[in-house]
Amino acid sequence: MNIDVNLPALIIVVPLFSAMFMVAAGVFYRKIVPFIFQFVSFLTAYFSFLLLFRVYKTGPVRYFFGNWAPPLGIEYYVDYTNILFVVIIASVFFIMSFYFPKIVNNEIDEGKTYIFYSITTLFITGLLGITITGDLFNIYVFTEISSITAYALIAIGGTKKSYRSSFNYLILGTIGASFVVLGIGYLYMATGTLNLLDMQQRLVPMYNSKIVVVGAAFIVLGLSMKMALFPLHSWLPGAYSHSPSAISALMSATSTKVMAYVMIRFLYTVFTPKFDVNVIPIQEILFIISLIAILAGSFMAIGQKDIKMMFAYSSVGQIGYILLGATMLSNNGLVGSMYHFLSHAFVKGGLFMVSGIVFYSLSTTKIYDYCGLYKKMPLTSIAFLIFTLSMIGIPLTSGFVSKWYLVVGAIDSGKWIAVFVILLSSLLTAVYFWRVVDNIFFTKSESNNSDVIKEPIAMVIPTYIMAGVTIYFGIFTNDLVAFAQKAAELLMETCK
Amino acid sequence: MKGHIVLKMATRMMVPFILMFSLYVLAHGEISPGGGFQGGVIFASGFILYGMVFGVEEIYRKIKRKILIFMTAFGVMIYSGVGYITMFNGGLFLEYAKLPGLNMKSGNSMGLLFIEIGVFITVSSVMLLLFIEVSKKYDN
Questions:
Q1: How many other C-beta atoms are found inside a 10 Å radius of the C-beta of residue A254?
Q2: Is any Cβ of chain B less than 8 angstroms from the Cβ of A24?
Q3: I need a surface site. Which of A26, A330, A465, B47 has the fewest CB within 10 A?
Q4: Does the pLDDT of residue B101 top 90, yes or no?
Q5: ipTM for this prediction
Q6: Closest-CA distance of chain B to residue A67, Å
Q7: Rounded to an integer, what distance in angstroms lies between the CA atom of residue A260 and that of residue A443?
Q8: What pLDDT shows up at residue A186?
């Protein structure tokens, strides 16, 4: 097999095949499934890094399925933008696969674990598929794969609340997905093609057509729903806070951000910025909505008593940042957006992992119960501190770099209000996170029981790897920024 | 259902034909209406009819639930396995022309049949699983 040629397909097909293999093997011998899971995550991450190097060396890669050429066949199109997203998702999946077994055994019924691992792998397959594909309908199909698995994963915890939030997400997610497919249908009707690059060419003379405008509106609305943009976010807090800890970590790190990536693809590759600015002002509208989302997410997070709920509302705000960078029509804004994708994937994933460790040891998610945690679980508390600093945007963490580029992008495009909002939101982030830090480090717990608890090392090490990545990309920023610049330039080419 | 002799005899006579017909639909998928999905549904409906007349316990006795779950996964594995074979043979994913021992013409026809068999197995076992899960008695 020529691995080098088949890399784009292998990234999808290996987890897809193995997800099924896990079920087939798990029926007869359950204990082997976590090892298959870890091996698959390793393979996926390995292939994604190989593809990254290949794209870095030779430029965008196109892969034709079944060797059918693009307008007819399905194409996987990998350029500088989406390889970055693929690598981040695959590596988050790889790191978390070592965090999974312990907490899964703790929270999921033993009879369901092999199904759980299989569905998780399918979920990641869907997300990787969305990012890597160059075909519109394929994006929809993979969206469905990732959402249907997500509904199952949220409900697998088996509490009443988890059923309710899964159902809530099911309804809203389905509405969002059907808007997306409706929009894709309109565009297909207008152009007769489903290939992203082909559609970009064919749409240019049709920008004033009503069909195209309606299609664009449907797609933007559907995607905003799937990515939990502020007024349409109501499914997200429940879905993140009532799902099993492992799943809230994995989902918060990947799922909504992938939809933000699809939005970037639509704004820049399918519709060029000329359409977004001149025909209907999508950029302007999304710019304002993302500003509102940033502030609203932060404000709602301040009042929460449950730590997972607080993280979830903070995610609503962070999605605003990623979209904000994409709507400013400047290179630096896009760089900031991509950097924030990386930063937030590792930081929010890590924070949910911390809350998972605490839940594993103390079975609580209330912020009040975090009092005096430093005495009981020092390693976990320090990891929490590192992630908090990155969330706020203290220098030497990746959160600082991403916010820096977002601010520079805002200044470049003359949108000073964005600068003000980013700074204000950083302050608000400090307010609601410092409340928890204060509880952990400086408040004594009321009960006298402050013995040191043995922290589960198998879960602490992956958390520290996440923290290490955050700090690494806060200090050694050059390579990634250069790569993201390249990606942004490729996206902005359609501007001219 | 005790004593419904007509129903039982009719079912006994019909089920083999239903199963046979499903294989026919499967095999002619690429040249006429039909294919793996439709064939799979018909195949499962034969068993479901049998289960409705003779009781779900009879199906349990014939097919274990474990095996059904295994088959569900196995069908998808056949589908992507065909893709792996073409990749190992130097082609791209699901490039049927590169299947071992087949050329452009026969490969495209046979390759389609192989993946339809995968779809057939998955669909039929999922349908049966759904029927069994829905008709389960909640006696706890």
A1: 26
A2: yes
A3: A465
A4: no
A5: 0.88
A6: 6
A7: 38
A8: 93
